[in-house]
Fold this sequence. Notes:
By secondary structure, this protein is an alpha+beta fold. The protein has helices at residues 32-46, 56-79, 84-101, 103-113, 121-127, 139-150, 194-212, 224-235, 241-255, 291-296, 301-319, 352-367, 370-380, 389-395, 410-426, 433-452, 458-481, 493-499, 510-525, 528-541; strands spanning 158-161, 167-168, 172-179, 184-190, 263-264, 268-273, 277-281, 286-287, 321-323, 331-333, 339-341, 347-349. Among the domains are: 1-26 and 138-191 and 240-259 and 266-282, 2-Layer Sandwich (Phosphorylase Kinase, domain 1), CATH 3.30.200.20; 37-135 and 194-238, no CATH class.
Amino acid sequence: MEERSADQDIGSFTSNGPWVVVPDELRWRQGLAAVRRTTHEEVPRLIRHRRLPPGARVVYVARLLGSALLAWYALERRRAPGTPASRTGLSRRLRKAFERLGPTYIKLGQIISSGEGIFPEELVREFRLLRDRVPAEAYEDVVKIVEADLGRPLDAVFSDFTTEPIAAASIAQVHAAHLIDGTPVVVKVQRPAVADMVRRDLAAMSWIAPWLIGRIPVSALANPPALVELFAETIVEELDFRLEAENMLDIARVLGRAEERAVVVPRPHPTLVTKRVLVMERLSGFSFDDVEGMRAAGVDTRAVVRACMITLLEGCMLHGVFHGDLHGGNLLVRADGKVALLDYGITGRLTEARRLAFLRLLVGGTLNDVRIQLSALIDLGALPVGIDLEAVITDLELEGPIKDPTNMSSDELTRELQQLVKKLLGYGAKMPKELMLFVKDMLFIDGALATLAPDVDLFAEITWIAMWFAEQHGEKIAAEMGIDLSTAAVDLDGLRASIGVDSSVQTLTHRELQQRREIIRKRFEEDKPTLRSWRRRARAKS
């Protein structure tokens, strides 16, 4: 029988950890509730409306972003307005400006890059380049921060510490190391002066954002001031690694309630955690895109995706805490098939009212009850209180006949999308932080299905997950919602409607879904060359 570590009673950790976590004995946890509260209260002050520019930084930011927009207006937009080439040109110019603006803007770009389906495809594709475009800090500067925060010389804590980071992100970089006793660890070190720069940049962003409304295509999908507010709420917590270590414990506690414990969390060190330094257990495994390696080791890749899905849903619906930044770089798959979940800087935390709203939203989806879902969106803050639900249902045609987008022309698709966005904005719809993080995570899982389990039947998988929740958590859900899931039938018509297929379609693999999406993508673009040629001929005649 596998030896069991004592701290597995409190969280989903590995069975043979290098140390035992005892939460009540962790000195770095003292006062963290007040720290988290103060951090949240800081956000409105950082992004408050200012009549005058907040310092010299805003001038530099405005100059770089303004130059990017002017160059786009003069070249790509004039040559091919409204086309993928125009959007690609704008995205490339914004990405280069973000690179020059430094860590805060690179971090914003990285968040956008994982928002496929939320932001324009061209923007997501271009901003993915920011994920590995962050130069590392000088080793000497890293050592200064570690020694200052730990209060000891580096060689008094570590027997070795790699000079080159194993990962360099916008806020911090990660080094491999061994403690004096030989224990392998990873050390996350915050970049020098990044906390002050983030606060200056948030002030600059909040002053510039209102001027971008209606001036760039992204505004049609994400109001810039609202995006800045979301970003501020997300990034300020990342500036204190004690909060991240606390997030690790909270997520581990939630995952520890699952019987199978298919996802594990690295242990934060009992003493080596400060505001700018986080020492944690070193975990290893297959990278999330190494499908061949996983399968050669006998790992069930479909079970890997299912574990990620169930973990996310349980966190949102039942516990109110979930990892808010799922992407391939934050996940390793161990040889035993368990998923190692890394990087807890971004975490979704729900009040009890919002947790119950998430529960109603997701259960309402499996029952295809539009009214339950819309009322849940109101409680989540995505729709304004007092909105007429019946008017929304009628206006958005949520109970109308299914429209198959693969049978629509590019003009029809564009018109449908524009009308939907216009109606949603007219209703005052917005994307609260927790909902944005959840949607972003779900989009990652969608992409993971394409890589790890492209031939799984989506309808059968969703039905299985719904029945699993009914068996495992049915009593709790019934008590909180008044719905007995064991007798409530799963209704997939809502899912079919969102995909654009009718009830005659009984099975649909993710590979087939991708093919449908590719048809729609091409349909969007198919008339553009002809349209541009017609415009050129018209200008020549005039």
